[in-house]
Specification:
Strands 1, 2, 3, 4, 5, 6, 7, 8, 9, 10, 11, 12 and 13 form a 13-stranded mixed β-sheet that branches. Helix 4 (102-110) crosses helix 9 (307-313). The termini are far apart. It contains 10 helices and 13 strands. It has 3 domains: 3-42; 55-223 and 331-350, Rossmann fold (3-Layer(aba) Sandwich); 224-330, Rossmann fold. With 362 residues, the chain is of the alpha/beta class. Helices cover 34% and strands 21% of the residues. Its EC number is 2.7.1.130.
Length: 362
């Protein structure tokens, strides 16, 4: 019995019920603290700091993976195409000795011309990006609850496979704050829409419309699979997975969504190996992983992980079995025009239309 099965109600029995009651009681002081904090910001009792360039926040209401990284990458690439010097700032949760975490390493490979600054103090990170890197536009990754830094637009990301954290605040559920926090969103992006039914999407849209201000765009997206690649950068077309027998390995917030994606690509999953979110895949974890693979390697044709996992595992084989990551990118099921219009309006505040194209790190 794991904590997720208790939170989502799947775990039954007396022990699970008692644990759920305890978690719900623990959620009361958390709710009081987050409510007081938000009121202080709403009433301007806590100072909000500004920088001299537009700040767009990409965040969520829940803990765990909602699919923000492909969105951040898409927005950064779009801004670069508009000839804007953009930087990404983030908390740097569970950074390693190099000062980077798994998301930063993944984005560094995808966005080599976009600098990243990680600091738990997002205002300090923003100041560094503007003053030292001469950035014109900032994307704040995972900062919806970090209200000390002023932002010009909040993009709220909702994972359609678990939109509202089982309907409860931490630790009973996965909500960082009540669903009423949607009222601060300027754009809502629904991710992984291809993994849920139309009825589930309609429910999410109704909930969003109940809490967001009128006219806030709510756009459906999904993660399109591009290809398979290994640590040595060898690639295979995504069709290679069709009818293959694989083991999935991941250390992400929503492993179920990843595993569904692998199945949608036509693979048969023989085993699902899940590590805690942001696990660093240290020597002990790798050793246990290799042992699990050894017992199945006569049947397993490949081990499939995410890009975020591959940058930490850093090998192309485990127990003699090829290790491959799935490359995904953001695609829109709705017209993204309302989102681009808001970004274009912010670009117009600071950019010089006569400025020639320059390299990001010139």
């Amino acid at each position: 019995m794991d904590i997720r099965s208790i939170q989502n109600g799947n775990a039954k029995g007396l022990v699970a019920t008692v644990v759920r009651i305890g978690l719900r009681m623990a959620a009361f002081p958390y709710a009081a603290a987050i409510g007081l904090r938000n009121r202080r910001f709403d009433q301007k009792q806590t100072e909000i700091h500004k920088v001299d360039v537009p700040v767009v926040c990409i965040g969520n209401l829940t803990v765990g993976g909602t699919g923000k990284t492909p969105i951040v990458c898409h927005l950064a690439q779009w801004l670069r195409q508009q000839n804007v010097r953009v930087a990404i700032i983030s908390r740097g949760y569970r950074s390693d000795g190099s000062g980077s975490n798994d998301e930063a390493k993944e984005m560094a490979e995808k966005l080599p011309d976009v600098p990243q600054v990680q600091n738990a103090d997002r205002f300090a990170a923003a100041t560094t990006a503007v003053d030292e890197l001469e950035s014109e536009f900032l994307l704040m990754d995972d900062g919806f609850q970090h209200r000390r830094l002023n932002r010009d637009l909040d993009i709220l990301v909702i994972d359609s496979t678990n939109p509202f954290g089982f309907g409860h605040l931490l630790p009973r559920g996965l909500l960082r704050e009540p669903v009423s926090g949607l009222a601060r969103a300027g754009v809502v992006l629904l991710t992984r829409c291809d993994l849920v039914s139309d009825q589930e999407l309609e429910f999410i849209h109704r909930t969003v419309s109940q809490h967001c201000h009128e006219g806030v765009p709510c756009l459906r997206t999904q993660h399109a699979t591009k290809e398979l690649f290994q640590y040595d950068r060898q690639t295979q077309p995504i069709q290679w997975l069709q009818d293959r027998k694989v083991v999935t390995v991941c250390a992400i917030g929503n492993p179920t969504a990843f595993e569904k994606t692998v199945q949608q690509c036509g693979a048969t999953i023989l085993d699902r190996i899940q590590f805690p979110d942001h696990d660093d895949f240290g020597p002990a974890a790798i050793a246990s992983l290799v042992e699990k693979i050894k017992g199945q390697r006569d049947q397993v044709e490949a081990i499939i992980c995410t890009h975020k996992d591959l940058v930490k595992i850093q090998t192309d084989r485990l127990a003699g079995v090829p290790l491959m990551a799935i490359s995904v990118e953001l695609t829109f099921r709705d017209d993204p025009g309302p989102l681009y219009d808001k970004l274009t309006a912010l670009i117009g505040v600071v950019t010089d239309p006569e400025r020639s194209r320059t390299d990001q790190r010139e």
